[in-house]
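Comment thread on ticket #2218

A.B. wrote:
> Attaching the input chain for the structure job we discussed in standup.
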Amino acid sequence: MPNASRPRRLSRLRQLLALATDNWPARSYLAVFAASVPVAFLFPESIYATGHLLLTAPLSSLGMVLPFGPGTEGGGAAEALAIAFSAVWLLLSALVNAAALGALAHHVRDLRTTGHA
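C.D. wrote:
> Ran it. Output below, let me know if you need it in another format.
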């Protein structure tokens, strides 16, 4: 029954995407992250060039301890794979951070509506 777990996995992914996109703080975070990525390519000597790394700080730094990333030796295919892995890891980190921010915004909203805050 490997197909029995598939709907549950998809519902968790939908929950993560919903938390990351259904409120203004999370959407604003994703917009700032999306704006910071081109800045790194357009102005690499700027102080804002590392903004996308700082915005995804807790999780994106975990990828730095792996011996797999931009600058690995081994030719074009290894470098392309390393850059792709780093880009996917950075995007996943941004999505998880946006979901955490969205969950926090939901929690604060729920506390305000119940009158406990």
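A.B. wrote:
> Thanks. Noting for the ticket: The chain has a mean pLDDT of 81.
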